[in-house]
Amino acid sequence: MKVGIIGLPQTGKTSLYNALTRSQVDLNKYGSTEVNVSVIPVPDPRFDHAVAMCEPKKITPAVIEFTEGGARIEREERQADKFGADFFVSVRNSEALVFVIRAFDDSVIPAPPEGINPRREAEKVLEELLLADLMAVEGRLERLEKARSQKRQSPAEAAEQQVIAKIKEHLDTFQPVRTLALTEDEKRSVRSFAFVSGKPVILVANVGEDDAAETLPEIAKPLAEYAAEQGVPFISLCAKVEMEIAQMEPEEEKEFLEAMGLSAAARDRLIRAAYAALGLVSFFTVGEDEVRAWTITRGTNAVGAAEKIHSDLARGFIRAEVIGWDEFQSVQGCWDAAKDAGKMHLETKEYPVKDGDIVHIRFKV
Ligand SMILES: Nc1nc2c(ncn2[C@@H]2O[C@H](COP(=O)(O)OP(=O)(O)OP(=O)(O)O)[C@@H](O)[C@H]2O)c(=O)[nH]1
Ligand SMILES: [Mg+2]
């Protein structure tokens, strides 16, 4: 999964990137156009448990890629309500967006001329994404309509025109592509547009050090309300503090989080939110050789999960041997122990794989 960190200048994007990826990118390079990319393992206590039980030779956690610095909105651009092309390229290349919004007051870091207004900032930027899509569909619709009136439209184009018109209607009412229900066929016909308002987005209020505990400060409340109205996941964190947490040893981190009144590091909370926003779940393959986590879309069936592992497994699929997470956890030991305890059930191709399932594919090619 590719996640892009976006936001206005000096809102804490690089700080958050450092916190998420345990990197140490220099913050004092204002105006830097450097793009930072890191692939990190997805923290998952279930995976850790499976590793402890199976003691495999090799471990392969799920991974997530964070990019930061590509989708920076210049303040002048924001004021002119016009974002640069680079911004959209970076956004288009991401599967999900983490939008960092300043909700901290700091005398050293100057506030924007219009003051600190997290809700307004979020509204403006999300609106801008929506307008970019509206422009794209209007342009396309014009060309499709011209071809139609000149009777030189292909059936594929005719189908596309219907979908595009539907999307335009939705955008005209100021709703993002994200909230429009499209069939798989419809999605396929417009995939190449990579609609920017179609990307799942997580709003992050970057609060001050004094507000680092999970109780939401006044300044961030209107933003939280906006997120709820939009049905968008919202997280508040203090990027500056999280950056320090990211450099701690696990034991120290635990103590520090407790002392701060935090349930988990923002890294964990944010990745969980990203999974939820993208409708992703994990399944595991376990054994003496390898314990591995796989990421699939919720509802993927057993043969789809097999395909993820290897196309041969999907082609020669016979049955999926499945141990549900709770069952696996109820037994001391790895696959064989759980199987011997009668926890394994056989499933056909259509079985929708559940979050946390331990899966073994029987196949023959
Ligand atoms: N007080 C306070 N300062 C913060 C917080 N997060 C970031 N900062 C400070 O804000 C400044 C900008 O932080 P960065 O992480 O570099 O922000 P950025 O969005 O990457 O900035 P640009 O790349 O220049 O757009 C730095 O001086 C940070 O120390 C925070 O939660 N509280
Ligand atoms: Mg930066």
Structure explained in plain terms:
This protein has 365 residues and is α/β, with parallel strands linked by helices. It has three domains: 2-41 and 63-112 and 200-277, P-loop containing nucleotide triphosphate hydrolases (Rossmann fold), CATH 3.40.50; 127-197, Obg-related GTPase Ych/YyaF, coiled-coil domain (DNA polymerase, domain 1, Orthogonal Bundle); 299-363, Beta-grasp domain (Ubiquitin-like (UB roll)), CATH 3.10.20.30. The chain is 42% helix and 20% strand. The chain contains 15 helices and twelve strands. The chain has helices at residues 13-21, 45-54, 75-79, 85-92, 118-149, 155-172, 184-190, 221-230, 239-245, 250-260, 266-277, 302-309, 311-315, 325-329, 335-340, and strands at 2-7, 36-41, 58-60, 63-72, 96-103, 201-207, 234-237, 280-285, 290-297, 317-323, 345-347, 358-363. The strands form three sheets. It has a six-stranded mixed sheet with strand order 2-4-1-5-6-7, with helices on both faces. The protein has a three-stranded mixed sheet with strand order 3-9-8, with helices on both faces. Strand 8 and strand 9 form a beta hairpin. The longest helix is centred in the middle third of the chain and has 32 residues, at 118-149. The radius of gyration is 23 Å and the shape is flat. Guanosine-5'-triphosphate binds next to helix 1 and helix 9.
